[in-house]
Amino acid sequence: FERPATHITESPASSPSGSHADQFEPIPLPRSVESVCDESQSLCADEPEINNGTQRKILLVDDNPINVQLGARLIGLLGYEVDSAADGYEAVTKACGSNFDLILMDCQMPGLDGLSATRKIREYEAHFPSRECSRPVPIIALTANVSESDQADCRESGMDGFLPKPLQINVLKSTLHTFLG
What pTM value is reported for the model? Predict the structure, then answer.
C-alpha cells in the first residue's frame, strides 16, 4: 500500500492480435485500506464506542486479506478485539476452540464456504454446549449477494444476521450493537 497503482492499461502491441479491440482503458483502482479506515475513523470520532466495557471478541472470517485488514480496522475502531480466519476450515477450528462473542462470516470462500462452516459450528455447539455461554454465538453473514434468496440461505445455514459488502462503519456499528448490546 506504499504506492498503489492508479490504473491498468495494456497496449495493442502486447496483445496477440495487435488490434485496438484488445486495448484496455485506464480504470481507477480502489483507494488504499488506510485511506478508507482514516475516513471511517473520522466518522466515529464524535460518537462513543459501542463496546466501552469488557473487551468483546469477534472472529472475522474472509478469504480476501484486504477485506480482513479493513474489517479488522473498523471493528477495532468500534472498540472490539478481533481475530481472523482465512477460510471456513480455519473458522470452524477457531470457533470451536475459543469463545467468541460474535462471528462475521464471509459466505463465498474456496474450500469450505461460509454457509457450510456455519452449519459445522452449529453442529459443534449442539453437541458440546459451552459452559461460559448460555446461547450459540451469533454468526453474521458477510456477502455482496444481497437478494432475499441469499438471505434465506444464510438463515437456513444457522446465521443470525446479514451484512452487505463492502462493510460500512455505521451499518457494522448498528449490527454489532443489535447482537452485542
Answer: 0.72
